[in-house]
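USER: Fancy drafting a protein?

ASSISTANT:
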Amino acid sequence: MQFSSLPNRLSRWQWAGLASLFVIAFITVIQYPASTTRSDPISVWKNADSSKISGPVSKFHLLLPASGYHFRLCRALASATALGYPVSVLNGWMKEGGLDASKTHLAKVRTVMQYLDSLPASSDDDLVLMIDGYDVVFQIPPDVLIDRYFAITKAASAKLALRYGANSTESLKGDDMPQQTILFGPEKVCYPVDWSRVGCWAVPQDIGIPHGAFGPDDGQLQHSLPRWLNSGTIMGPAKDMRLMFAATLERIAQHYDPIHEFSDSDQMYMSDVWGVQEYARSMEELRQYFHGDIDPNVAFPTFNVEKVLPNVLPGQKTEYHIGIDHRSALFQTRAGSDHVLSMLTYNETTEANETTTFATVTQNVPESPNFNPYKIYLPSNLASSITRILRLVEPAVGAIPNVTELRLETNLVTKNVYGLFHSTGGKDYIDKLWTQLWFFPYVRPLFEAMVPALQAGRPIAVADGRTWVPYHTLSSNSSVTQGVNATGAWADIDGGWLSWQELCGAFEAEVFDGYTPPMDD
């Protein structure tokens, strides 16, 4: 058939359906590179002048809901600074009442919403990364994280196009089009546990990981698939994040019950916003086949419980472009995952290809009969980015290790060197992890080396056809312009500059020496 014979008014989703297979194949290649080479990296921002950037420019925001001082907050800030992330904003800093995160988890939703509302329309396409302030540390640089974000979301959106077919979403346009732009961290159980909640039972069945991959399919937490939403790590465009946070606040207003055990759980409300989205998506998909009333108990057979069905009104917005980072390419949530995390050294090669580096895994996580050891390859962009960062401190520390000598914590099931670690549950793991992170021996010199870039707002990545620069830079009014004490964070949208000395001067032993108090507070 000639292209001229195609209908003149193909919908966006018809074109998407035609292109999806090609897109998925392409994205798969860039999302999961098979090998790494030891080629010299090209710095995105070294010696770059932000005033001379050509082409589209977008900005990257880093938000940390935090109400007060703590050594783990300082470790989060330190890992972000050492790896070249934007200067952070502390949402809810020293706030009171409903904005005090030490009193209610809902403060996170309210203070982040205030920040998103403060952004101009020109920031709608900016990327916003929000992490919990007291139990998260970074492992990979921002250029790799942003690359992975776009690879995952574009692949997911292409699959959604195939799922709905050519004609099923003709009535949906613009922001109502099913797509994925917001990534949440994964969770191995629906928390708070209430299987009647829509955020528990309406979740996608196919997450791209087979049952049993984490161990026998026996219902134990550590063997479960990471199918659910965790609200401690979120990344997406400013506009979509604003809409999603607004929907969460609306759900809080409608469903808040002060006597409910988990009434202040931000995760409960956010997961239900996602659950309603998935419910509406599934019902829309089924209408392609049944063309009439659909029994939700048939449509969602996953759990043998009485489901509380969402009351979705005609014309109600349910699509918020929410998705889950099931493979932990960006976000590694701890709960139930200790047994699949391992510090690997990617120093193995083959005689046929000595530039390809990998690690051999001998741990039989799925408990498979006749288990065969397998290889995990280090992505080339990650190897290059880490090497670039290490070279920044070479003048100060002398010889630096090759990337193949470093130990990188890896998810043995998804085969990803994760972007950041979120220590849900107990904090002993993250305290021990801190001194094992590859950059820990160079935290102080990396601080000093990153200061000029953070002051100038130099580019941190090139991805999605755009150059990415930090939205927030170091304070231009600070009397300190060099060294660790030139760094810091911004307090909300109105709280001003918080210097490193003020925030973390009392915790420098915990940050730079790795000391952890004997009693966990």
Remarks:
- The first strand starts at residue 57 and ends at 65.
- The chain is about 35% helix and 15% strand.
- The chain has a mean pLDDT of 86.
